């Protein structure tokens, strides 16, 4: 027996079926953000300046977002491992790169065929701030000023060792060597903490190091600062001259942190994240850590961060060329 439906009934059944299908889709499409833990991928090991700042933000963001905010350290390949981890993630805002100029400007500028394009493969969320770096030497080095160190290095060409734990340090030291006419041995490390350990032990003589982990050692006399890489003196150590004041006005390096996500993130998710990160910058938990790290919080719109990243990529390419560093 064949059941025949009246045309009107067939229309109603079809309509109900379509409505049911629509209702099945709605919960997914209207799913609020965040619906699960948010992951901040950091391109440096635990204990680094970026890791410390990221963990301060994670602590504040978790209750604001109503979900755990986890810090995931993915060090290696000049930050590219962390960048690739994020660009492969779903573009839903639950996986973000708490990155720096290393993976977002320096590493791409140093590669002939970079693993990603920072300007098209990521969604800008917010500019976090600027790092302070010091050029420091081990106390055994007979130099109290930058001029004295340059003279010492020229008298001992090729015998001094410097370490780097990130591409910022690598570019800064290459630029310093080119401008000062010195030749030293580069010892690369996986992260800044490991390089700093060897500097304190005297296995290295020189390093460009971030303020957070180095300032306590400087105050204790375990490291001697020669200059700060900022265009102005640092409030953390106001007695330390800038590179320009110390005799190298051509030296220029900017180290920064920013949050980006995979390409094509929903605008409303980007807006929510930007709003929450901005609010976190006013919280004492973040301000205290930033002050301890001599890290200047900035904040920005997503659009401004995108423009800044483009400016920085061009700037680092020019710096690398001037320092004689060819893309690999």
From TrEMBL:
Gene3D superfamilies: Bordetella uptake gene, domain 1, Periplasmic binding protein-like II. Signal peptide: none annotated. InterPro entries: BUG, Bug_dom1. It comes from the Bacteria. Belongs to the UPF0065 (bug) family. This is Exported protein.
